[in-house]
Every structure is written in C-alpha cells, then in structure tokens.
C-alpha cells in the first residue's frame, strides 16, 4: 500500500532495518536498529543513534512511498521524480507512530542576522555587482530562502544569509537550491553564501558545491563611517 506522504502527519518508525539506495550511485546500510522518519512534506530520512542531526541516508521530497507487505520482511520503496529509489527492508518493527505537528512559525533569527538580511535585500549589489532582488523570504516547501535575486545574465541566484558562516548554512543553501530546481520556470540557478565571517571549512564546502561566498561588513552596510567605529 502507499503511505500518504505529505498528508500533514510525521511518521516515526524505530525498526531493525537494512537500506539500499539506487540512483547516481549505489549504497547499502546493513541490518541495524534505526529511526526512520517520514516527514509531512514527503522527505524520508534514516537516522542512527549518533551523527548529530545528519541522517545516514535520505530522500528529499517530493516522493512516492510504496509499502510492500506481501513479502516477509516488509519493504518500503521510496521513489523520487528522478527515479532514484531508497528501499528500506523492515526486519523488525519496534515502534510505529504518527503525529500531527501543525504549522511551524519557523526559525526566528537574532536581531543582527535579521537586520543583515534586511540590509542586503535593500542593497543586493553589495553582494555582487548587478544583482537585483526578486523576493526576500522566498517560500519553499522546506522553508523560506533568505533572498532570491537575478544577475545581469538572468540567472536565478539563491542567497543564504548568516551572521557566522558555518557548514550547516552551506548545507541549508544546497537543500533550498534542490527545491528551486524543481521549478523549471526559474531557469539556471546558482547559490551565494553570505555572512559577516565564514569559517574556512564552510568556504571549501561552498566552493565544492559550486557556490560563491561573500563576507560582508555589517557596520558598513548600516552606513557607519570608519571614524564612527569607536567605543569612546
């Protein structure tokens, strides 16, 4: 049967399972106890008890999840629009629950980060020459993108703004761009990671993902002259 992904409920399954991914490459997770999370937006993620927030394997929404109960053990086959598949074999189900989480107000940025985003929206050329704003807080199924702009060549530019640039922010930008790429009307899309300071590891990761990164001066954006930057 098909589990109604995107139905508004989050399904949490703790099970002894093995997982096989087939797509751009092949990957296998041997049998072990894991948490399988099917989010309301259709994202499917498999977590171990470790590794912080990052899943061992996942499939971003939109997906189709088919539950095959004729065989023993039961299998879930998750397929995305690119025909990549994630096959989860459930050797033993320990817990299977579903929960309605309701609407989420989203992450509340601290004052500096929120104001930084506001200043950059007003002056996108401070990020890159010729950049023009399309929309601030551009909506996607996984949350709003800080800024979506256009460059002089007409390329769509997704901008993620942080006060301190770390690896998590680069990963967040990558997820947003995956969502934008589902909309063919946006044409070519690229990413820019912007922060007051960016850690070296985040710079390397951004470049490896094909993103550019920009460090900006918050006080300069606020129009403060150098001689104003004094305590006494």
From TrEMBL:
Domain Endonuclease NucS C-terminal span(s) in chain numbering: 112-232
Q: What is its EC number?
A: 3.1.-.-
Q: Which GO terms describe its molecular function?
A: DNA binding; single-stranded DNA endodeoxyribonuclease activity
Q: Which GO terms describe its cellular component?
A: cytoplasm
UniProt xrefs under InterPro entries: Endonuclease_NucS, NucS_C, NucS_N, NucS_N_sf, tRNA_endonuc-like_dom_sf
Keyword Zinc-finger present in the record's keywords: the answer is no
Q: Which keywords does this chain's UniProt record carry?
A: Cytoplasm, DNA-binding, Endonuclease, Hydrolase, Nuclease
What the entry lists under Gene3D superfamilies is as follows: 2.70.180.20, 3.40.1350.10
Domain Endonuclease NucS N-terminal PH-like, by residue range, is 9-105
> Where does it localize?
Cytoplasm
Q: Which Pfam families match?
A: NucS_C, NucS_N
Q: Does the keyword Nuclease apply?
A: yes
> What family is reported?
Belongs to the NucS endonuclease family.
Task performed by this protein:
Cleaves both 3' and 5' ssDNA extremities of branched DNA structures.
NCBIfam families for this protein:
PRK03298.1
Its protein name is: Endonuclease NucS
């Amino acid at each position: 049967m098909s589990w109604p992904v995107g139905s508004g409920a989050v399904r949490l399954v703790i099970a002894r399972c093995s997982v096989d991914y087939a797509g751009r490459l092949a990957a296998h997770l041997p049998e072990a106890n894991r948490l399988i999370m099917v989010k309301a937006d259709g994202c499917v993620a498999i977590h171990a008890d470790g590794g912080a927030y990052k899943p061992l394997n996942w499939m971003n929404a939109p997906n189709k999840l088919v539950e095959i109960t004729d065989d023993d053990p039961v299998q879930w086959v998750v397929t995305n629009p690119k025909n990549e598949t994630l096959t989860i074999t459930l050797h033993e189900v320990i817990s299977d629950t579903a929960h309605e989480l309701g609407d989420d107000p989203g992450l509340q940025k601290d004052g500096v980060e929120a104001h930084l985003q506001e200043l950059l929206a007003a002056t996108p050329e401070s990020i890159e020459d010729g950049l023009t704003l399309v929309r601030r807080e551009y909506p996607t199924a996984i949350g709003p993108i800080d800024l979506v702009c256009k460059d002089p060549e007409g390329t769509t530019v997704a901008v993620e703004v942080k006060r301190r640039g770390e690896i998590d922010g680069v990963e967040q930008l990558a997820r947003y761009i995956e969502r934008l790429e589902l909309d063919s009307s946006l044409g070519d899309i690229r990413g820019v990671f912007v922060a007051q300071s960016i850690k070296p590891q985040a710079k390397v990761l951004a470049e490896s993902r094909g993103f550019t990164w920009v460090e900006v001066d918050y006080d300069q954006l606020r129009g403060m002259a150098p001689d104003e930057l004094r305590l006494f």
